[in-house]
Amino acid sequence: MKHFLCPCLFLCLFVFSAPAADAQQTYSLKQCLETGLERNYSIRIVRNDEVVTKNNATPGHAGYLPSADLSTGFSGTQEAEAANAGVSVVWTIFDGFGIQAEYARLKELRTLGALNTRLAVEDLIAEISGEYYNLIRQGTRLGNLSSTLALSRERLRIVEERYSIGSMSRLDLQQAQVDFNADSSALLNQLEMVHRSRTNLNRLMGAENPEELVLLKDSTISPNAFLDEAELWKRTMETNVSLLIAQRNTGLSRLDLKKAQSRNYPYLRLNAGYTYTTNWVGMTGLAPRWGASYGLTVGFSLFDGFNRKREQRNARLQIENTELQRRELELSLRTEMSNQWMAYENNLNLWSLEKENRVAAQENFRIAIERYRLGDLSGIQLREAQNSLLNAEERQSIAEFATKLCEISLLQLSGQLTDFLLR
Fold this sequence. Notes:
Radius of gyration: 37 Å
Order of helices and strands: HEHHHEEHHEHHEEEHHH
CATH class of the largest domain: Mainly Alpha
Structural class: alpha+beta
Number of helices: 11
């Protein structure tokens, strides 16, 4: 079995990595982000939605401008026929400041559209960054497992030679084979994890082929150990996009109240028109008539079933709700910042500790493999040293990755993620 499985694994590694060597471009994190922001389908959709809000924020849509209609008609009986045409204009001059409130609301929606786009961009940047570093981590683990498999293969070779001359038992041979098979299985599973991470990164970048092989510029993860909690919180209160959206929602609620209050005032409309009319009786045509018309309409709603009061009460409650939601969001942000900062500092300490542990585990394994080759160490003891090294490498990789994810979350909370990663 070993003579088949080992070449099979290395063939898998070759198939996996060989096409990547022919890749045309090596992607840095910044290049991945720029590609994703250009091609990602969700971002393109939200940007179109933003354009819709910009298109809607016009004086005409708010009601500032008049409306004009052109109409024409023809009618007749057995005795007479008539034709007419006309142009009519209606312009609301005043409606209790409702038009002004609506225009301000449309402009607020335009700003909200830009903020929603920014929110989607920051979410995508966080996703791509996380997957970029995850692919590095999975690739590192693949390399570690490959080294572990190579060592298990060497151990199996030594045991086979010693078993053939009678210096080792069949139990030793079986145990070496079991360990080799376990490492082979772990490597195959890790190939799948690398594939999943790569295809997910391609999906986030909007690649047409999710299986497209990409080379990453970075092969290691280097956490930033110099973030400042006080500065992060200050920036969070100033530039966190979710908080800015909550503040805009409160502003929209106030404008909804102003629009509801506009019904407390009278309205004034200007009406104007110009018509042409002509009639025929039998074969005789009457003289056409041209005429202009104009007028002003002043109106006031005296009673509408108390609907105005109901709408205004609801609008005030909505203002209160949006303000409560903003305060709740501030508390959630404070909690999230505290938790992420704690995790960030904790993982930084773990990262430093695990780097020391890895060095110690490497030295321990180096001694163990030399003693094993000399026949001064059992296979079980060598396996323990081998597992200790692999676990130390894995713990360091996890600490690096976890620290980087905390860093990304802290920058996103403080509204700095875009500037920090795309500068």
